Amino acid sequence: MEPAAADGDARRAEEPAPPLVSLRPLGLDDTDDFMAWASDDRVMRYLKRPLCANREQAVAQIRDTVLGHPWFRAVCVDGGHPVGQVSVWPYADDGGRRANIGYALAHDHWGRGIVAAAIKMVVGRVFDELPGLERLEAVTDVENVRSQRVLEKAGFHNEGILRSYIAGRAGGKAKDAVIYSFLSSDRA
Fold first, then answer.
1. Structural domain harbouring 118
2. In what order do the strands lie in the sheet with 21-24?
3. Could you read off the pLDDT of 77-99 as tens digits, one per residue?
4. Does residue 45 lie within any of the structural domains?
5. How far apart are the first and last CA of the chain?
6. Cα–Cα–Cα angle for 63, 66, 68, rounded to 5 degrees
7. Do 104 and 43 meet the contact criterion of CB atoms below 8 Å apart?
8. What CATH number does residue 69 fall under?
9. Alpha helices in 15-95 (DSSP H)
10. Which residue from 52, 75, 89, 165 has the highest number of Cβ atoms inside 10 Å of its Cβ?
11. 119 in a domain, yes or no?
């Protein structure tokens, strides 16, 4: 029995420590890092936003969309360069009571708990930073099971299916989506 315990201890010692995740504003100096996810169809395939095919398109997207965004942050790992993004967009027609959360992560960093950690950080601060915000929503393609798992790990509640709700980047046929929510009262 002792060798089995020793083997178990050795396996635990070999597992990498979870990455230290931080959030900060994304700027034009981050263009090359931004390209790691914004130009990758594996990452962007469920988002409406077009791929950034080149550096000039990435600069334009950061300049025209990110810099003026009400709440957009770079996701960084272990104090390094950005490996992803998370954004919160208040619904204009609701007086800021509800907002949508979106995120993307460079493919090389998938499966490490980074996005779930980043979303938990967002939930921990966005309700204080956006006065009046009561409800954070996430809508994801029914086929995007990875995103659904991330939201559940971050404490979001599955509210059901929205039929024929979202269209793809190319304006394709509307697809079903899953809607999740996190209320300000859900914070621990």
1. 21-183
2. 21-24, 72-77, 82-90, 98-105, 135-141, 175-183, 157-166
3. 998 999 999 999 999 877 889 99
4. yes
5. 41
6. 85
7. yes
8. 3.40.630.30
9. 31-38, 41-44, 55-61
10. 75
11. yes
